[in-house]
Amino acid sequence: MPPDAAAQAQANDAKVVRLVVGYAAGGAADAVARAYAEQLQAAGFANVIVENRPGASGRLGFDAVKRAKADGLTLYLGSSPMFVIFPLTYRKLGYDPDHDLRPVAIVADVPTAAVAGAGQPYRDMAGYVQWARQAQGKASLGLATLGSPGQLGTIEMAKQNGLHIEPVVYRGAAPMLVDVAGGEVSMGWDAVASMMPLYTGGKLKFLGVAGSRRLPMLPDVPTLLEQGYPQYQHASSWYGVYAPAGTPDAAVGELEQAFLAAGRTPALVAKLQASGFLVEPRPAADAKRRMQTERAHWAPVVKAAGIVFDE
After folding, report:
1. Cβ atoms of 54 and 65 closer than 8 Å
2. CB of 179 within 8 A of CB of 204?
3. Fewest CB atoms within 10 Å of the CB: 62, 91, 258, 275?
4. What's the pLDDT at 27?
5. Rounded CA gap, 138 and 205, in Å?
6. Are strands 101-110 and 282-283 parallel, antiparallel or unpaired?
7. Residues 170, 166: Cα–Cα separation, whole Å
């Protein structure tokens, strides 16, 4: 190794980057953070420590990074609803999604989908809509997060089809999906990653996936868009990495390139795709545009539905 390369590697070994995750260890966000941390360390970029700060739907972790020194050594891995949906639905958000942190990169897309219990009579969203029209108020939507993009898409879809679908909110995806599998709730919505175990076990069936293209892990499941339900085109979410406001452009640029390079490695892509994620990393500018585009899309839906949270 040339002397300059050896010196750079030694400097990177000494650099410690703290990647704060606003959710508990073992969850989807934690899995993405740890996969990237492992790859960044393997590439010699830095010693990356994942720090879990769960609470307030990710806002506690956000606040910790917002108050951190803007030196590029403390980062936040957060889900898109914090920057897209929460600003529309919380009366007192407690942070500025556009100015307290600055994007570094989009690191993973989180495909979401509608599912039903394997024993339900409908096989796709058209069948569900037909069943719901005759269900005499029994149609329901299981959710792990109130005000999620999936709920907003369902509000739009129900309005278009003259339906009432009652939201049923759980403390997490696991108990919600158990009730969906058992037929207690007629439809569920969450990340595909959380649904795969019950799906492969024959307890759930997919009614359709969000977005504009089929998923590589579910090639035979049509999108809801191709089924004729465009309300769900923007109903997926994604994870981004963010730095405190005031972090120098040079530091953000270095971090951006490091995360983009890590997200292109075959090992990381295969590992996260097997868990139900899509890994197509995109730069900071794309993250900013995507936040604004999706927020503009959902704003009239939230307003029409009158969704407002105090806490």
Report:
1. no
2. no
3. 91
4. 78
5. 19
6. antiparallel
7. 13
